[in-house]
Amino acid sequence: MTASVTTTTTTARGEASALTRVLEGLAQPEPGVAAAGIDETFASACHEILTAPRGTLRIRVAGPSSVADHRITLARSGALLLSTRTDRDTAEATLFPVAMLPGVLARVAAIAPTGTGTTPEPATTPPGHVDSDDLAALLSPDTATREAAAARCASELRTSTAFPDGPDGAAWSAISVLRERPDRTERAVVVRTAGTYATAEDTGALTAGSPTAAWRHLASALA
Amino acid sequence: MDPTDLRRHAVTLASTEQSLELPSTWEPVALPSPPSGALTGFRAAADAHPAFRDNAVLTAGRDPGISLAAWQDRSRREQLETLPDLQILDDRLLRDGITWYRAALRTDAGAMTVLSRQWARRLAAEDVVLTLTTLPVFDAQHAGMFDAIALSWTAEEIAS
Predict the structure, then answer these.
(1) A16, A136, B109, B137: which has the fewest Cβ within 10 Å?
(2) Per-residue pLDDT, B37
């Protein structure tokens, strides 16, 4: 069962369906068979986290050709990141201390400097707007749905003030962070083109901003 | 930040006079002398978070004799070499054309992930840097205050 999953003390990699089965098994009160062939330290830490979760963070990074999903299970003893992609059969699970959560969020959401380094930040512009259904469709796991939404948004964004440099249809990405707690759920969405980030409201309102502003918007789901 | 509750601190660092406006509850903090140049710091009152206090650090050093962009290229490389988990979020020349801005996440000495925002400028003979550091979860809440502190920053060379 675990032949297609390889583990170290802090990571597991392998076929997505096999890794998912392993983690489902480790979430049981008696992991037994699920832990067979799995690094003992990894299995024990996963079991501790998955049997006493205190919240979940789901990060989706959607682009023209693929969608990456990252599910972070948070517990008192640590955190477990499970990363899958629509264009790959393999998945990866990583254990990390909860204190590292902000850095892990920034890394998987791929928040990074825009422009060439000497490009000044975007001018303050009034917000732009896309249809809220299109905004949701940009985050669809279905490629055709994303492509259609990107095509519709591209024409709107071209005349929008949210992306003063104009969109680059080949380079867009939409990033969502969903924080699920027992009593409430927070969601934050950011859209990126080649040169600019925009923070998005559920209504479809887009506000151009720096990577710092994009990071702040996504991280607000952590607070 | 309550605009009536600010205090301007002025300091002499190397051959620069620098000042910035901070909430009145912030206090100076003693920092070890750097190998070259000079630095000073301030930190928030101890009531916000038991293990971390927002802080501001000002530095001055000899002008590196290269352009602002080249200096920041070099400082970025040095930071990436010395801080293994440094994650740079933002790194660019600001619209004023004289200030380089960088935002980055890193793990501090206490194993906490912190967010530092840096503003760097070159004067005629000195380079100066303002660094503001907070916890990432407080960044959105403290952003306005940090932006106001950065805007209040002045740095001039002392006429010789």
Answers:
(1) B109
(2) 80
